[in-house]
Every structure is written in C-alpha cells, then in structure tokens.
Amino acid sequence: MFRRFSIMLTGLYAVMRYCAWRHPAYRAQLAQCDLIAQIRIVDEDSGRWYEIKAGRVRSRAGIHPKPDVTLSYETAEVATRLLTPPIDWQEQINSAKNFRLKVDGPDELVYRFTQLMFATRGAGWRFGAEAGDGVRRYTSMTNAGPCFVYVKDGKILRITPIDFDQDDAPPWTIEARGRRFTPPRKTTLAVHGLAWKSIVYSPDRLLYPMRRVDFDPHGERHPENRGKSGYVRVSWDEALDLVASEIRRVKTDHGPGAILYNYPSHHSWGNVGYWTSALLRFFNAVGHTRVNHNPDSWEGWYWGAEHHWGNSMRLGTAEPYGTVGDLLKEAELVVFWSSDPESTSGIYAGYEGTLRRTWLKELGIPTVHIEPYLNATAAFLGGKWLAPRPGTDTALALAIAHVWITEGLYDKRFIADRTVGFEAWKRYVTGADDGIPKTPEWQQSETGVAAREVRALAREWGGKRTYLAAGGWGNGLGGACRGPTGVQWARAMACLVAMQGLGRPGVNFGNLQWGTPIDTTFYFSGYGEGGFSGDLAATASSISLYQRMPHLPSMNPTLQVLPRTNLPEAIIEGRTEGYQRDARSIEGQFVPIRYPAPGHSRVRLFYRYGGSNLGTMPESQRYVKMYQSPNLEFVVNQSIWFEGEAKYADIILPACTSFERWDVSEWCNSGGFALHSQMQLNHRVVVMQHKCIEPLGESKSDYRIFLELAHRLGLGMYYSEGMTELDWVQRMFEASDLPRRMSWKKFLQKGYYVVPAPPERLRAPVAYRWFNEGRKKDLPEPSPLPSEYKNRYLEGLQTPSGKFEFECMTLKRYAPDDPERPPVLKYSRSRESVESERAARFPLQLITPHPRFSFHTESDGKDSFLNDIEDHRVLVNGSYYWVLRLNPVDAAARGIRERSLVRVFNELGAVICAAHLTHCVRPGVVHGYESSARYEPLADSERPTDVGGALNLITPKKSQIARASAMGNSNCLVEVEPWAGHAAAASAHETVETHSA
Amino acid sequence: MKKWNLVFDAALCTGCQNCVLAVKDEYVGNDFPGYSAEMPRHGHKWVDIRQRERGRFPAVDIAYLFHACQHCDDAPCIKAARDGAITKRKDGIVIIDPVKAKGQRQLLNACPYGAIHWNETLSLPQHWNFDAHLIDAGWAAPRPVQSCPTGALRALKVEDEEMRRIAQTEGLAPLDPAAAHGTRVHYRNLFRYNRVFVAGAVVGNDAGREACVPRAQVQLSRGSEAIGSTLSDAFGDFRFDALAPASGSYRVEVTADGYRAQVLDFELADSLWLGEIRLNRQESGEENQR
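The joint structure predicted for all components is written out below.
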C-alpha cells in the first residue's frame, strides 16, 4: 500500500511538471504564489512535499520541516483510494466529513495548492468551435434562452439563437385533427437576449470596488447620506477586508440575526453561480436572517386558488402536463384571462410558445381575451377583446357562473362526483344568500363590460370544450393575480374551470405555453435545487441533486425570518409581522412570522445582491428610507451595473456577467421552483456556459467574491471544497444523465445537448385527467408530499376532502368569517376601485404588468439596445423615458399629446413618463410596464418624483388581504397630467466616473 | 441564377423586435471590411419594425411592418451614387461600399423607402445589406430571419421565375406596387398595415334584455357594387377588412332572423368602428325581405 501511495504522489509531481511544460495557463497558475505543500499520511511519517516557487514546481519524498500547507490522509489506503483517478466525489466528501482527510494551513494557500492538483485534470480541456476568421463560437444560457456567443480578440462579436445541426435530436410531432405539428430544429431567444452584448459592454458596468466617500468604518458612517454621496475607488483587498471585518464585528457585537442578504427573484443564468447556490452556501456558512419571499408572480394562486384544489408545491397554480397536445386535439375555444405570454415569455422560455399559438389559427380555434389592455398576445391572435376595469374581473367571472347555472351549461357529473361545496357557492352566485343575483347585468356597472357580451361569452364557453389561459403561463403567473383583488380572481379561475369539468378532453388550463411533450424523466438539475449550496432545508437539493452530486451540506442555523414584503419596515421600525410562503402544505400560509425573533439581533449588516427593489417592489421609496436608516450599520451591494440600489451602499463589489465566468445549466429549468418548466419549450437543451471573455475591469464572478470573503473568515475550503467554478460545472455534469449521452470532452467543445423527445407512449399524461376520471394521480411530479394526501397516497387532491372544494375547508377551519377571503368565493370591490373616495382625486387606474421587452430590470436602462425600442422607452430631450399608455379620450381631456412628457402620480409620489396615445387601453385605464432599472428621483421636489420610470414608486404596498403577505399592486389609482419640467443632466445614465472622488 | 429574396408575413409578426435587435447586435461595434462599417449604438435602425394601430376602442388592432432596404433590382440609390459606391450583386443583394460611399449625403434622399441612414461620426450612408458578409460565409439566412420566432420572415434564394410563382401562390406583394423598382422584399397580408377595416356589433334583445345577435347577415356595398358579405359571430361582431382608405361612401345592411333589417350609410376614411347596430324586433307576422 505504501508503494502505491508513493507512486501516486510521484505521479502527481510528474503530471504537474508535464502541465507546466505543456500549458501556459497552468504555468501562469503556478506563478500566482509561492508555497510549500506537504501531502502525507497520519499513521506513519510518510509522504511527499511540493515546493512552488517563482512559477516552477519541485518535489521530494519525505516530510518537510516547515510546509505552508498540509494535506493529511488517515492511512495510505485512504490516500491511495482518494488520489486514484477518476475522482469519486462520494468518497472525497465522506472522507472530509469523517476527518479521514484533513487540511492544515492558511485557507487561501490550501485552496491554491488543491487547485494546482485539480487543474492538472483540466489543463488540456478544449472549448467551443472555430468559426473562421479568428472567431471562436461558444455557448451560453440567458434568461431569454440559450445562445451561441461569437468571440474575436477577446470581445463578444455577436450573440444568436442556436440552430441545431444534423446530429441533434429531432423534435416531437403532435397529430391533431388530421394535421401534424412539428416545431423547427432551433431555439428561440427573447428580444432581451439579443441586447446582452450591449449590457455586457454597458458604460454603467461596475469595473472596480468602491467605498462611499463619507463612510468611515472607524468613525462616522453617515447612513443618512446613502443614495446621496459619491464613491471612491478602492482595491479588492480593502473592500473585502472591510466586509469580512464587519461580518465578524456584527456577529460579535450583536449576535445571530445581525446579517441579512437580500436577493432578487431572478439571476443571470447558471446552476453554479445562481443565488440559490454560490450566495446561499456562503451566507449559510456565515449565518443570517432569512428573508421569506412572497410568491410575487403567483400571489392570488397561493393565497387563494390553493384552497380550492391544493397543489401547494406549485404555489396553487394548475397542473401543467400534456396540455399542448390536448388543446390542439380537443379544444374548441381558448379564453385568455389576464394572459399575455407574448410579453411574459413564460419567464424563461424565449418565444417557444409563439409559434405554437399560430397553430390555433391553422386549426380555426377562436380565442377571447379578457384584459383592460389589448395586450401583445391579444393583438397577435386577434380574438374577441373584453376589457373589464382593473380589479373587477371576479364580478365578470361570477356572472359567467350565473349564466351557466341558470342555463345548465356546466358539467353536472363532475360537480357531483369530484367536488364538494358547490351548493354553498351556488347560493351566493344566484343571490339566494344576499338577494343579489350575480347576473351579467349586475356585473356591468362593476366591470364596464356589456351584459350582453358576458352572456354571449358564457354561452360560448359553456357550450364548447374550452381551455382557460389564466395568467401568462396559462396555468398561472402574473397579471391580475398580483392586483388588490388577485386572490378573488385566481379563485374565480379555478372555480370556473371546475364547473366545466377540469381535466376532461379539451377542458383545462393552458394557452399552449406549458405542456409540450418533451422528456420529463431525463435528469439535469435546475437552479431551485441549490447548485452546490448543499442546503437541504431551503432548496430542493434533497430531492435529487444532493444524492447525485455528493457535496458538503450547508445550513443556516439562525431561526430569525422576516417577510420580504415588509423588509423596509422591518429595518426601519425594527419589527414586523407577516405570513410566509411555504409550499409544503396548504396550511403553511396561515402561520405568521414575527421579527425580531426572541434572543436574536435585529439586522445590522445588509448585504444587497443586485439592485432591483426600486423598480419592482411596491412603494419603492420605502427602500430609500430603509437604506438611510441608522439601524443599518453597514450596507454592501454586489452588482454588475451601477444602477438601482447599488447607489445606496457603503461598499460596492463589482460582479461580472455570466459570459465572463464558467457555468452550466439547462434552458428554463428552475428545478425545485415550477417543476418541469421545460415543458414550455419545443426542445430541452442543456448548455455549457463557456467563459466567453475575461471579466471586464476588475469585476469578478460572484463565486470568486464569496470565496475570497470566505478565505478571510477561514471558510474558503469549506465553501469551495477546493473547487473552481469549472470544477463544479464538471461535478454538476457528472451528476446528471448527460454523461450517458455525451462525453464531458464533447460537451465542452460542442457546448450543448438537445434531449430527444420521448416516443408518444412515454409522454406525460394530461393534467387532471386522472382526477376527472377518479383514478390515481399519474403525473411525473413528486407532489403533493405523501402526508398531504388525506386518503390514500396518490388518490385525490391535496384538499381536506380530496376533491375540488367550492367551499374551502381549509378556510372554513382557519377563518370562516374573514370577509376578505371567505370559504366560498365572493366578489368584494377593490380598494383601488373607481368607486372609492380616493378616485375623486385619482380617477384613472394604472396597470403595471410584467415588461414586454426587458426581463424585469435586466436589459433595461444602462444604455442597452432595448432602450431604442419605442414601445419600451422613448427618447425625449436626450433622455429615454418610460412609456405610459393612455386612451386618446383621457389624454385629450388632459391636454396630453403623443410623445409628450407626463406626470403620473398619487399620494405616494410621481413618475415622469413619455405618453403614448392608444386605443389599446380602455378609457379610464393607463398602462405602464413595471421593472424599470432606473430610479432617478429629482432633487427639488417635495414628494418623490422619478424620471427613470420606476412606476412601483406609486403602487401601494398594502397586502391584498390582512391574513397574507401578498403583493397587490399591479393596478392602482392615479392621475396623469402634462409635465413641463426637465430631467437632471445626468439622468440618461449615470456612469461610475461621476461617482468617484 | 438564384437570387436572394426576403418574405415578410404581417399576420405572423408579433412585433417582438427580434429582427431589429439582431441587426443592432450584428453591426454595433463591428466592422466588416468590404461590406459595412459599424452601426452607431443609437439612432439607426437598419431593420425596423413599424407599428400601425387601426380603429378605436373597442375595435382596435395592431399590425407590424418590416422596414429595411428593399434590395431593388432597379435601385434609385445606385443611380444616385458616385464612383460606383453602391452595387447590385449577381445574387440580388445591394451593397453600399463602406469606403466609396463616404461623404455621399445625397444618397439619403435617393432611397424612396427611407432605408438609408446617415452615420454622422463616419460621414457614411448605411443600410441593411442582407448580412452579405454572413451569407458569403455560408450562413443559411441573415440575422433577422434567424431570430424570427414565427417564420414571419423568410429568406429564399431562388430563380426570379420561381419567386414570381411563389408570390402568386402565397399572395405576396411589394411594399409599394406602383413604384416598380423591382424590390426583393415581398409582403404578405400587407392589408393589415395599409388597408382599413369596417367593424360593428349587432345588438338585439332577448326576453327584455340586450343581447348579441350571432349569425346576422351583414352585407357591405359601395354604390351598386357588392363588396362583401359575412355573418356576425357569437358576440354579434362583424368586420370587413382590406378596404382602401378614403374610398368613399359605403352601406352596411344587417338582416337577422326575428329582427327588422337595418341599414347604415357612412363615409370610409380610416378604419371605422360603426359601434352598436341596434336591431328592432319584428312584429309578429313580419318577415324580412330577402
């Protein structure tokens, strides 16, 4: 055994020398620092040492008297096992966890030597393809879809979607009504993906760390000046030393809970670099107050619809399997209700669904679109448009139910066999309860939609096999579910489809966005599985990834939690209460969370990852006050661009984009969040995210930033396991099913793999068909959890009765008299209604849906190409203004002309926009997307006035209902008037230069 | 000789702007010697998607138009260019030489489609050259076609004879038929963008309540000429499209079972929403004349 051990060590030396000779990159790595490393066993004085000096390595058998770094294996047998390739990660991790392998020495030097060992594996790896003329073609993945990245002379030349080659798997075909539907052999890229080159090379890129000029960690900190003061450039060492020392200080001075990180809902793509991975592992190792994120784009489904049918793991949205095939084969009508997939793109699904929706025309399937605004999807498909006033949709839905009841246009068999509580709800709908029959005539004064049209719709819908597309996904997402009456609306959607016999052929949720017949069993991890974080509690790692990719676990032991919706209040006031998002059960949402937790410190150190709160969260002025609160002793911002909340930090750490680091991912695969989201795609595609270019300036990958911070806390080896990002990429590759289909070396070069579509017999069955027919659940999703079934496992829904409940038992048990969320669905007028008292001053209703062209704040502002799309921003007097759409009648009444600047305002403040007059907005409604990346308040106004376009400045923060922490701000009351002011000179985009002293 | 053509179908365009951004991505920051100099970061849209809104609430629609160099066979810009600064390739592509064309401001007005853009920094007229550098490198299609998610844009390299046949079969038309420049961009369903519609909603009553009238027969005529005939849908809505703007006086006649016929005369300027056309119930014993 000794002999083998010593051969291994000698062999390592030989390999290191070979790599140094053969590969310049390895030589450069050797030159990074000098150290002496000892590899030895513990039960005997046996081993070999390696001296790295001036870029060269020399080595000798034996024990060195003064090594910098020591790797100790318990015995020669252990050492040989662990050092013999190929690496068995399960063995490595077990040995580390059981102290059979130990490391000694300064964290950073141990990491460097471990890396010199690992780097010998990858020194010869080749990436990408030659594209002629000195150009190399790489691959990457974005929120817009996968892409080829062409690089020349270290610069990105172009970014394109991927056209498959003849070796890639052919697509699926669906046969419907005598036709065959087959998608093309390529990927689609949403428009913001095509803007990536312009934001990689944006003048707003953060290129070096900065410190606020009037922040002195040893003297006056001046929190009140956050957002006002300028910045001075500092070195990485100074910045990270300060952050690390502040982490140590607040933990010592204040105790657990003092540190909070605030992450965004999304991230640039990649499993290793995602916040669920690199950031989570770091902050678990440090300990933090957790921010519980409200289900922002699913509010009404989670807090509302879920009580009718369960599905808590999908946040109360509908099952999505098999619906593309079923719709094409069986549906006679599709009703799009607050559904705009052409704008929302299924979040990550490019424009995959767009082509499929053109098949509706080919099949002659008519559509109806219910939305206060003729959205992009409605304009494209050209179906009947009904425009209810924002927040009144539920009244329209109840009227439809009324027609169905009085004319017998519903599935009585389904109601009798598969549901409970219908009679209780029917009494409300017919008016037997309250004397008010919810007729089409009744709803007309609430919604503004003619009674006759509602009656006609109800008859069409009830007389045909109809798919309901509720929200952008078709089975949820965005739109009306985030308004003040979103809970009512989502409940109404569930109840309507239940009345029609949810799950029978041609009756389901969908708009051809979700439910393609792609493979649902091939495994590749999604970001919700936590990457390498090892967090079994807060990610979906325990389901598959933790077993398949052995790695060290991490956990945050701090019990203090606060609701994201109240983050500013928690900081400013030092306390808050709310309700949590917990997808494991229906009842989880009833349990309040209170901050601070007993015995825990309030938050003192605020680590903001990104900067999008100001454009995306309601009443965003609260965040300004939050940052300026003396309760926050230290604020760090880690961002790619100098925008949004980056301007409110004490220390700014510049991160690089996903094109400047290694990663790996699958398109539209969010893992534990929204399982099988890839069913929005025409093809499943796994992509190697090549490091296409070097990080700009001094920016670093998030992983590297956390690693270097971890070093300063002695946590580097634990955090990284000695890996680089590329090493983690390889481990993630090995953890998937991909090695069975394509070798690592081939994957590195080609950059992508198209997962073949399964034969028809292996396609997932149709959603809810099992339930409709009274069978066991046969869908490939591991939810609800076993304990959530009330009868036998896989029989029935997650509800107490196992059936669809028109009268929700969960609500009846918990709060039967809650007027905001009664056990049966009822209509109650929105507090942002035109009938309210405030409407006298603010008579228009602003709707703020998800943006069409940018991906939230990503790709907006920062001199992105997107700004030149006039439907996104309009250039007026040298600044790009956000677009506010008004009906010409409302505009004329206010003296507002096309492209003129306007002030849209209410009590909360004002935003300056460029007006676009259009009949696509019903009278009384104004439309502006949310998610501006720019927040630029004018200095000289008494109420906050933003010229950047952050409409969420004036949307209300109040929860939809008191017993929830539910955003309800996607529509609200405003007034609009012409604006003759001028934006400040630096408002177009502020560059870093103007902020360094 | 096979030549390049572009086909744009307005009915398949969602207005996503991918084609616009793909061209910006290709040319901003990139020189392609012999083909093109870089595009300025802002202000130039060599490929543009223009939007037209027709009608008024609630009868509104939106159409998009692909706008770029039409690669005319008989290009006015070639005639206006000095020193052979613009050439027509054998494969049909028109190219403005990024060196020879320098300073030739007169070319801006030479293009009847406004598809030439002035680069102030380089003193150079520029246009979309069909991504000729990519075509010559073997790409199957130019960037706008590659990025289009629905196939609204297609690139065809075929003989002119074949293209004429395709245009016939698919109902393709040039952007401006009267102009006869031999344009190589062919448009489908262009009526969505440059013609107008007339729409209305037929309203009746049923059991004392207002009701939509489906399957009402609606006839459109101009003078003695019958223009079209349709049935109202489940919502009582009807529409006649592809009419010429400002084309004079029209009549709509609505007949439905159980109702008295209704006639509406109107002048057609732009797309028109006739509003609710209310029908009165027949007295018992009355019948509509056929």
